[in-house]
Design brief:
This protein has about 270 residues and is of the alpha+beta class. Helix content is about 15%, strand content about 25%. It contains four helices and 15 strands. The strands form five sheets. The protein has a four-stranded antiparallel beta sheet with strand order 3-4-15-5. Strands 11, 12, 13 and 14 form a four-stranded antiparallel beta sheet that branches. Strands 6-7-8 form a three-stranded antiparallel beta sheet. Helix 1 runs antiparallel to helix 2. The chain starts with a helix and ends with a strand. The N terminus is likely disordered.
Amino acid sequence: MLSLRRAIYEARHLYLLKSRKNMKKLTLLFSFLLIALAGQAQSVNVHKTNGEVVSYPMTEVSYVDFSDGDDTVGPPEGVEAVDLGLPSGTKWANMNVGATKPEEYGGYYAWGEIEEKSSYTQDNYTVPTKRTGDNIWALNGDMAYTQYDVAYMKWGGSWHMPTKEQLDELIKNTTWKWTQLNGVYGSKLTSKQNGKSIFLPAAGYRQHGALKYSGTRVTYWIAYKGYFLCCIEIGGNAVLNMGGLVGLATQEYGIDFYFGFPVRPVSD
């Protein structure tokens, strides 16, 4: 029978060979190991470098994971979960993934990818979609809280990419004003419920090696089936494209899955 100490060693060794992208699979594997060993082990013992041993009863251990400290998961300093008084209780982050301030553009990500690139093309797009004949729709089209969700993979906890319902709720319960924050153009969203607001910078998007519409378009991916938000400035006003709704990312709109868009996380 595999010993608990040996199981921990094997799991840690596997982690060092795998990237963080496969962390959820490792956590699940390790959870199964703990369950399998629960009948013979009464506690999990952590042996610290100073000789101290910290024990946790098996009944109190849900799962164990490891971190090498080089790719820390968690929101950066300054991130706030803004309560806009939305009916669902959803809170919106005050900045984008990859940003350190509300007005910063942050990172650009192809739909379903979790790392930035120097060029965004169909050829280097890595996520299987219905268009490429695979089946990402096995997720019911919603990749929130999955390995395809850059907000969840980068920030962890309850943070994730907005669902279609959460974006619709945001649109219906806020007013949009085209403005500047510290010299950066974008849209200020003010809650109709409690008057609080968030700022969405006009970061545009990346296609191939170019940054397009920076300063003139607010664009964001959400978690559902390649849907996106687009807000543009017309006559000094913030105007939601696609009739104020989200639109499916198809050639009809000149947008494709491989384009690099910013992501604004939400917290349930």
